[in-house]
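Crash report, auto-generated. Payload:
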Amino acid sequence: MTGKSAARGAPLFKVRRSRVHGRGAFAARRIRKGTRIIEYLGERVSHQEADRRYEERGARDSHTFLFIVDARTVIDAGAGGNEARFINHSCNPNCETVLEGRRVFIEAIRTIQPGEELNYDYQLGRAPDDPPDVDEIYACRCGQANCRGTMLWPPASEPQGAAPRPHTARRAKRAPPAKSAKRGPARKRKQPALR
Ligand SMILES: [Zn+2]
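Recovered output after restart:
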């Protein structure tokens, strides 16, 4: 499986087993900083529908196919998703997500060498009905020196809203938090980088 660059047609990355989590996406050649690597594709559904779809997987399944577009819309990469869904989380990522016209793109924030695993910071949101061990369920194994130990944001040590979300140079606009009223904990969603 390969991620194809729309511009050049040459595969930018290959999907194979990752030591971090399941399968991962690995650079097939040098990717320059600023390169738009792939669009995060999947069926666009409401937050409510996303929760309904993944409810039966249970709160202990840490696979995340959902990406927040805004307060109304979630991209479900589990339905019609592309290889973007295999890009893993890292606390010291080489990519970021960019929200543009309600579409989500993954771009390189530094030059990536062939064979390097692509990753971005998922910044999975917290919810009041999270199980007490939610940080263990969504534990991060990125192995980076600054690893915060969880794919969630903010870290458990920080009160909700106290810590600024990590971001790169550009200006910030975060997606509104998802609202959901349901029985089990809401399925975790990846969030766009702050702009
Ligand atoms: Zn980490």
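Post-recovery validation: The first strand starts at residue 2 and ends at 4.
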